[in-house]
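Ticket #307: bound-state structure for NAP.
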Amino acid sequence: MDKILITGATGNVGLTTLKLLESKKYPGIEVVAAVRDIERARKIEGVENCNFCHFEFDEPSTYDAALEGVSKIVLIRPNQVTDVTRYIFPFLAKAEKAGVKQLVFISIVGAERNRIFANHRTENHIKKLNIPTTILRPSLYMQNLSTLHRHDIQEHDKINIPGGIGLVNYIDVRDVAEAIVTILMNPGHEHQAYEITGPEAMDFYQIARIFSNELGREIKYTRPSAIKFVRQKLLDKKQMLYVLTLSLLYNAARSGKMNYVNDVFQNITGHGPRNITDFIHDYRDCWIKTDPKIESPKKRKLYRSKK
Ligand SMILES: NC(=O)c1ccc[n+]([C@@H]2O[C@H](COP(=O)([O-])OP(=O)(O)OC[C@H]3O[C@@H](n4cnc5c(N)ncnc54)[C@H](OP(=O)(O)O)[C@@H]3O)[C@@H](O)[C@H]2O)c1
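RESOLUTION: The complex was predicted; output attached.
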């Protein structure tokens, strides 16, 4: 019997991974979703009957119970948790002591090179632990367009991303989840680091055209400067380190550093990743203009994870 603990289990990747693991019904596998608020998590469509445990990175008293009997961990570091020395490393120390046999850490493209990234420090720390680990470095998530940038597209018909004319190799979170599940369920991925990209690199003008075709109204790419973008996100009360990380990533796209794709996802799973046209089609409802009276935070959350 293997018990898999997923952190960040109500977020983009965690929730999609949880749903995928549950749908596969692997014999001898128990899945536990580590969440801050069990009651709230249970209300999310599709996971009502999952196993939940109370867990908060910034509340070390929750670590021991969450790790009880756990043999594998999918570690997703929430963007808000930037002080990894204080809130991630002590959890990993407990996991190591508890004899966890496999760790899959969801890092990010470029984390091995960028010391400012919290995931960089986490990767370096994990390498020193005595837990067989796979580091997965996805490129930017397509789902940023249905969460972080959703409001601009839905309400203002704009993509406000400082990507210049650079190309970006977006990956669908559903594919990230599939890569995670494949790594968990098949031997041979321990002590590996994989960067995974989507199947094509395109600029935001092209992406705006795909949106326009799908939604039947014009979506414009505004091409803001990095400074304007950072200022706006800080005004929106996003955390400084998170905004800087995001800005660095878009800077990488702007300067042509995301102008490539690789076949690592294909090698892990045996088939190619989803493209952005399919993503926009599958999620189209979330950019349809709605009556503000029926819009609710609960409904917004549902768009994070589609089947
Ligand atoms: N966005 C991208 O393009 C991209 C690309 C590659 C890699 N990444 C990496 O992906 C990670 C983020 O994953 P995501 O986008 O799936 O996350 P997300 O959608 O932002 O969700 C964050 C999750 O963490 C939980 N959480 C927040 N604070 C917590 C705390 N103090 N203790 C325990 N849980 C907490 C949240 O729970 P609640 O529901 O309670 O808030 C939620 O389940 C980051 O490490 C990022 O670097 C992002």
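RESOLUTION NOTES: Residues 57 and 297 are 24 Å apart (CA to CA).
TICKET STATUS: resolved
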